Automatic annotation (TrEMBL):
InterPro entries associated with the record: Creatininase-like_sf, Creatininase/forma_Hydrolase
Keyword Zinc recorded: yes
Cofactor(s) demanded: Zn(2+)
Protein name per its UniProtKB record: Creatinine amidohydrolase
Keyword Hydrolase: yes
Source organism superkingdom: Bacteria
Molecular function GO labels: hydrolase activity, acting on carbon-nitrogen (but not peptide) bonds, in linear amides; metal ion binding
Family, as annotated: Belongs to the creatininase superfamily.
Length: 242
């Protein structure tokens, strides 16, 4: 696996033109008492590295910030606006298109970035030839049914619970303090998916679910499964556009 940050411009000329590149995208936000603020970054980086190896794609440097409106009131959380994130992705795509890149794969580990990524992709399609594929844990629901013991607090959300904690244990267990892992299963109002609610109004721990059942082995299976699903989808996409 080659990383753009570690090669020179002549090597980049060969690695970019007509090729596929992978961009990991995360966030800096509160993840309970037991996980680091950059949990999403570590997870995105690891999945991107596995996918880049399998796809023989060039790995771009991680974008470490995202849209974290929901958790912005927890100390340490740093949020970009949707428009800032859209502009960043658009500018990156413009440069990569200029250098002849054929496909940009964005591997995102923060659900709050999804809306901006979709908008960015559509704007890029109108301006450039580069193809964009965006992923936020594809195949997770199937993997969850196989390996995860606890239930989600809300069907559309997960945060610092068994899934994310397991993945972080696999990626960098030195940054996980399971002695501080605490479950939080707040009552989610019925209007939660229809009305924006800062998460400090529903959880004082920045946790949605139960991290105490997390294990490194579960995390290994989740990360491996997500990466495999990305590779499968990309290979099918490449066949479809040939």
């Amino acid at each position: 696996m080659k990383k753009l940050a570690e090669i020179n411009w002549k090597e980049a000329e060969k690695e970019l033109k007509g090729k596929t590149v992978i961009l990991p995208l995360g966030a800096v936000e509160a993840h309970g008492y037991h996980l680091p603020l950059s949990t999403d970054n570590y997870i995105a980086q690891k999945i991107a590295e596995i996918a880049a190896e399998k796809l023989d794609a060039l790995l771009l440097p991680l974008i470490p910030y995202g849209q974290v409106w929901s958790l912005r009131n927890f100390p340490g959380s740093i949020s970009l606006s949707d428009q800032t994130l859209i502009s960043m992705i658009g500018d990156l795509a413009k440069s990569l298109d200029h250098h002849g890149v054929e496909i940009l794969i964005i591997i995102n580990a923060h659900f709050g970035n999804k809306s901006a990524l979709k908008k960015a992709e559509r704007l890029i399609k109108e301006k450039y030839d580069i193809q964009i594929l965006r992923f936020t844990h594809p195949g997770l629901k199937d993997l969850e049914r196989k390996y995860i013991e606890s239930s989600r607090v809300h069907p559309n959300y997960l945060h610092a619970e068994e899934i994310e904690t397991s993945m972080m244990l696999q990626v960098n267990s030195d940054l996980v303090d399971m002695s501080k892992a605490e479950a939080d299963s707040p009552e989610i109002p019925e209007y939660f998916s229809s009305y924006s609610v800062p998460w400090d109004q529903i959880t004082n721990k920045a946790v949605l679910g139960d991290p105490t059942q997390a294990t490194k082995e579960k995390g290994k299976k989740l990360i491996k499964g997500i990466a495999a699903k990305i590779v499968e989808i990309v290979n099918n996409f490449e066949k479809g556009v040939e």
